[in-house]
C-alpha cells in the first residue's frame, strides 16, 4: 500500500493510442553507439537535449545543441561521476505524473521542467567482472544514477518514454517524428526497462554474494540468473506442452545462428545441447551423433587435421547407422564439403558446428529438412549447472574431463599387461566418450570410434549387454569403458565373454578384488581412473 497521501483522485487512463509529443529528452549513455544519430534526429524534431558529461560532449562535438545536466541542477558532477543526475531537478522531471494537475503545479512552483524521453544505458558491470577486474574496479562499475533514472521513468511511463537499447534508436527517432509515443508503446518500453535493471541488479547481487562469504562449499548465500525470451517453440517435449526458448547473457546454443532448415524444436535443442557437450569434450576433430540425448555414435581422429571431420563422421555413423537416422550431429570443427556430402545422404534433424565451409552450405541447403546451426565463437560451457526440482534448484559445478584420473597417464593398471600406445589411445577415447552417455553407461570402442553403446539402463549388466549386442562382431578386440565402477563382476563378465581386450573404469567398489580377478582370469588389462562420470 502506498504511504503517499493522494492530493487528488487518481487520473483516468488516457487513450492508449494517443501520441504524447516529445519536447525534452535526457540522454545519459555509456555505450555511445548511435547516440549522435539519435541526437540529430531528436534535434531535427525540435526536441531539447539534456545530457551528462561524456554523452553531452559527444553530442556537442557533433555540433548538436545540448544542455548539460550541471546547468539543470546547478551542481557540478562530483565524486568521480558517482553523483551526476541524482538531483531533484532531474528526478522531479522524470517522476512528475503529468496527468495530475497537482504534479504539474509543483513542477511549475519548483522551476523543474519535465522529461518526455529518457535514453540511458549502464556502466558495463558484467563485462568488467568478466575481464578479471579487481573487486574495487568492479564495484566502481556498478551504475547507481542510471538505474535510478531508468526505474523512475519506467514507473512514470504514463508521462515518460524510456529507452535502454541502442538497437531501438532508429525506431525511437521515427516515433518522435511521427508525433511521439502512445501509452501502449511507453508501457512496452517500461517493461523492457524494468527487465533491464532487474537483470543488471541480479548480476551485481550474484557477483557480490560470490565475493562475500559463501553459504556452503563455495556456493553463495544468494544467486540469481535472468533470461530473455528468444523464441516461442511450436511445442514442448510433446505436442500438448507449450514451450519457449529463453536466452542467457552467456553465449551458447540458445544464441546459435540458424543457417537453414525448419524451426528448432524443444527436443532438437535438448539433443543439440547433448551433442555439443559430447563433441567438445575432444580437442582433436570429433563428431557426436545424438538421439534422445544419448550418443548413438562418437568418433575422434587423434592428431587429425580439420578436414578429418569427414572421417570422424563416417566412423561415428558406422557405430549404429539404424539409430543415427533422424539424429542430431555436432562437430567440433567447421563442416567440410566432404562431410556435408555424407550427412546429406542420411536423414538428420540438426547439424551444429563452429562453422560451415561455403561448399558445405551449398550441399546441405539442398536438403529442406536439415537444420544447420553455427555455434557462437565465444561459446563457453557454464561453469555451474542448474537443475530445477520441485520447490528448488540443484546447483553443481560442471562435470569436466579434467580430474587427475581423466588423464590416461595417471591411471592405475589393476591387472594384465600394460597396453600399447594405440590401445591406450582407444581407452582414453572410450573414457571420454563414455561421459556423454547417460548412466549406467558402457561404451565399446576401437580405432577412435564407439562401436557399441549401452546407455541409461537401471543396472550395469543390462548396459553391458546392450553395448555388446550393438557392437556385434566388433566387440571382439574392442576396448570398454564404464562410467562408474562395476559393483559386481557380472557386468564385466559380459564384456569379457564378448572378447573385449582392455577395460577402463573408476574402481572403488567394495568388490573391486572380485572384478579385477575376473579381468585377470580373462587375460584382460584393466585400468582404474579413480574418477567417476555419472550422467543422469
Ligand atoms: N551517479 C549518477 O548520478 C549517474 N547518472 C548517470 N550515470 C551513468 O553515467 C553514464 C553516462 O555518463 P557519461 O555521459 O559521462 O558517459 C550512464 O551509463 C549513466 O547510467 C551515473 N553514474 C552512475 O552511477
From TrEMBL:
Pathway info: Purine metabolism; IMP biosynthesis via de novo pathway; 5-formamido-1-(5-phospho-D-ribosyl)imidazole-4-carboxamide from 5-amino-1-(5-phospho-D-ribosyl)imidazole-4-carboxamide (10-formyl THF route): step 1/1; Purine metabolism; IMP biosynthesis via de novo pathway; IMP from 5-formamido-1-(5-phospho-D-ribosyl)imidazole-4-carboxamide: step 1/1
UniProt-annotated stretches for the region Disordered: 1-22
Alphabetical list of NCBIfam families matching this protein: PRK00881.1 (NF002049), purH (TIGR00355)
Keywords: Hydrolase, Multifunctional enzyme, Purine biosynthesis, Transferase
GO molecular function, one term: IMP cyclohydrolase activity
Catalyzed reactions per annotation: IMP + H2O = 5-formamido-1-(5-phospho-D-ribosyl)imidazole-4-carboxamide; (6R)-10-formyltetrahydrofolate + 5-amino-1-(5-phospho-beta-D-ribosyl)imidazole-4-carboxamide = 5-formamido-1-(5-phospho-D-ribosyl)imidazole-4-carboxamide + (6S)-5,6,7,8-tetrahydrofolate
MGS-like domain boundaries: 13-164
EC number: 2.1.2.3, 3.5.4.10
Name of a matching Pfam family: MGS
Protein name: Bifunctional purine biosynthesis protein PurH
Keyword hit for Transferase: yes
Amino acid at each position: 500500500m502506498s504511504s503517499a497521501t493522494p492530493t487528488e483522485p487518481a487520473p483516468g487512463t488516457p487513450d492508449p493510442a494517443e501520441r504524447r509529443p516529445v519536447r525534452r529528452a535526457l540522454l545519459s549513455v555509456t555505450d555511445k553507439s548511435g547516440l549522435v544519430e539519435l541526437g540529430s534526429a531528436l534535434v531535427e524534431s525540435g526536441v531539447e537535449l539534456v545530457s551528462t558529461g561524456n554523452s553531452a560532449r559527444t553530442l556537442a562535438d557533433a555540433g548538436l545543441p545540448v544542455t548539460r545536466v550541471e546547468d539543470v541542477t546547478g551542481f557540478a558532477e562530483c565524486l568521480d561521476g558517482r553523483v551526476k543526475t541524482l538531483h531533484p531537478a532531474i528526478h522531479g522531471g522524470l517522476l512528475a505524473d503529468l496527468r495530475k494537475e497537482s504534479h504539474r503545479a509543483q513542477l511549475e512552483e519548483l522551476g523543474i521542467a519535465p522529461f518526455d524521453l529518457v535514453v540511458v544505458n549502464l556502466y558495463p558491470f558484467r563485462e568488467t567482472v568478466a575481464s578479471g577486474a579487481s573487486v574495487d574496479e568492479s564495484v566502481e562499475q556498478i551504475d547507481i544514477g542510471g538505474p535510478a533514472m531508468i526505474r523512475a521513468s519506467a514507473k512514470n511511463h504514463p508521462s515518460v518514454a524510456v529507452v535502454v537499447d541502442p538497437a531501438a534508436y532508429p525506431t525511437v527517432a521515427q516515433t518522435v517524428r511521427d508525433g511521439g509515443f502512445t501509452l501502449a508503446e511507453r508501457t512496452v518500453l517500461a517493461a523492457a526497462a524494468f527487465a533491464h535493471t532487474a537483470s543488471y541488479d541480479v548480476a551485481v547481487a550474484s557477483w557480490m554474494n560470490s565475493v562475500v562469504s559463501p553459504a556452503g562449499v563455495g556456493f553463495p548465500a544468494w544467486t540469481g540468473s535472468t533470461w530473455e525470451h528468444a523464441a516461442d517453440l511450436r511445442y514442448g517435449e510433446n505436442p500438448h506442452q507449450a514451450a519457449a526458448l529463453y536466452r542467457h547473457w552467456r553465449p551458447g546454443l540458445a544464441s546459435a545462428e540458424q543457417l537453414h532448415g525448419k524451426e528448432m524444436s524443444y527436443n532438437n535443442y535438448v539433443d543439440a545441447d547433448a551433442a555439443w557437450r559430447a563433441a567438445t569434450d575432444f580437442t582433436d576433430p570429433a563428431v557426436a551423433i545424438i538421439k534422445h540425448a544419448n550418443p548413438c555414435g562418437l568418433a575422434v581422429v587423434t592428431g587429425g587435421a580439420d578436414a578429418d571431420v569427414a572421417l570422424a563422421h563416417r566412423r561415428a555413423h558406422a557405430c549404429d547407422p539404424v539409430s543415427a537416422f533422424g539424429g542430431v550431429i555436432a562437430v567440433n570443427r567447421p563442416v567440410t564439403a566432404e562431410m556435408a556430402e555424407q550427412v546429406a545422404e542420411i536423414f538428420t534433424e540438426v547439424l551444429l558446428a563452429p562453422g560451415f565451409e561455403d561448399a558445405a552450405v551449398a550441399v546441405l541447403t539442398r536438403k529442406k529438412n536439415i537444420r544447420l546451426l553455427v555455434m557462437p565463437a565465444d561459446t563457453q560451457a557454464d561453469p555451474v549447472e542448474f537443475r530445477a526440482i520441485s520447490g528448488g534448484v540443484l546447483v553443481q559445478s560442471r562435470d569436466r574431463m579434467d580430474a587427475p584420473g581423466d588423464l590416461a597417464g595417471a591411471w592405475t593398471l589393476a591387472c594384465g599387461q600394460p597396453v600399447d600406445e594405440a590401445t591406450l589411445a582407444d581407452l582414453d577415447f572410450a573414457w571420454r566418450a563414455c561421459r556423454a552417455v547417460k548412466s549406467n553407461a558402457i561404451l565399446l570402442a576401437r580405432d577412435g570410434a564407439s562401436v557399441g553403446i549401452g546407455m541409461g539402463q537401471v543396472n550395469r549388466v543390462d548396459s553391458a549387454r546392450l553395448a555388446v549386442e550393438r557392437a556385434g562382431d566388433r566387440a571382439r578386440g574392442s576396448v570398454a569403458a564404464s562410467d562408474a565402477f562395476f559393483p559386481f563382476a557380472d557386468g564385466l563378465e559380459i564384456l569379457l565373454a564378448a572378447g573385449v581386450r582392455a577395460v577402463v573404469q573408476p574402481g572403488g567398489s567394495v568388490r573391486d578384488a572380485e572384478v579385477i580377478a575376473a579381468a585377470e582370469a580373462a587375460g584382460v588389462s584393466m585400468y582404474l581412473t579413480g574418477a567417476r562420470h555419472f550422467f543422469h
